[in-house]
Specification:
169 residues, mainly beta, 4-stranded antiparallel sheet, 15 strands, 0% helix, globular
């Protein structure tokens, strides 16, 4: 259901479905299961995002209603996983993620809009500038224009500036 190709190395591919995630480092010729450490017995994988600057850094979003099981990251290609759910997210499915290489910000699309990780509070904060209360199913960063676009369920595509008030130092 989910496919992510590393922007820095097109031979590194992550492919996932509900309760499994696989990684290839040779363009898809062979695959390694990197699911171990993800809580897929309680929640399902809902998205995979590779860091735009590091093919070994990957973020997995999880769907479901387990409060502390929403976002996991790996910095070693899925060898080990760290839960970065932290605080601030509602107990709703997280559907997708987008990483901004210019700022290092991480955005999440959830069943209640968009959230961004705020390093000042070490947690997730709502970032729904003008976005109605809607399920966000896809996020896409438009780097040249400084815009984050959100694909929604039933409400079209919305966009906002990535220069959110309160997030800049």
């Amino acid at each position: 259901n989910y496919l992510a190709i590393a922007p820095t190395n097109s031979n590194t591919i992550y492919a996932g479905y509900l309760n499994a995630l696989f990684r290839s480092t040779n363009g898809g010729t062979s695959w390694t299961n990197v699911t171990s450490g993800l809580p897929v017995s309680a929640v399902y994988i809902s998205g995979v995002q590779v860091d735009p600057t590091d093919a070994n850094a990957v973020l997995v979003t999880l769907s479901g209603y387990e409060a502390a099981e929403k976002v996991y990251v790996s910095t070693n290609g899925g060898g080990t996983w760290t839960n970065v759910t932290a605080t601030g997210l509602p107990n709703l499915p997280v559907n997708c993620a987008e990483l901004d290489p210019a700022t290092g910000d991480t955005y999440l699309g959830t069943d209640a809009g968009v959230y961004v990780f705020d390093t000042q509070v070490s947690g997730w904060v709502e970032d729904n500038s003008g976005l109605p209360n809607v399920v966000v199913t896809d996020l896409d960063m438009q780097h040249a224009s400084g815009l984050l676009r959100a694909g929604t369920f039933g409400r079209g595509i919305w966009e906002t500036s990535t220069l959110s008030v309160g997030m800049q130092e």
